[in-house]
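Support request, please re-run this one:
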Amino acid sequence: MTPVFMIQKALAQKTLTQQAMTQKAMTPLTFNFDTFDHHAHITSINSVPTQATQFWKRISELSHQNQWILFTAQCPRPSIKQLTRFNTCSSKVIHMKASSYQSEFEIAIKAIQSGNASAVVVSSNIDEFGQRQLNILAKKHQCEVFFTEHSSQVLH
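Re-run finished. Output below.
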């Protein structure tokens, strides 16, 4: 990493930290990915289908914008069945590959800052402070962030 990049990164993190401290803490909406018949499906933490339904309806709405819906590599890939059930524009949904040199948090920041995503779906492996930072950054860039929990990884 170049010294200039390290300074820019440190300044960006400091700015996000200050913003997080001055704004009310946001409670992230978290979902749980379970596996059934080799297809990933989202259920809420409390297994209340309405939260999962709300998630997919919102993803569907956002998918009809001229921006991407990005799922990080740490999230199971949504199935075609899930996407079609809620009339989600599947051509706008991207399941990103894992990076060997960037963390999920760094990838989420870049995705939000690019201005090309209407939503970024990341795992809840990101700590609470990082989740708050992503929420603040997403709000600034007119993007939405969703945090997922999953019990197993689905391979397609």
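The chain has five helices and six strands. Helices lie at 3-22, 49-63, 80-85, 104-114, 128-140.
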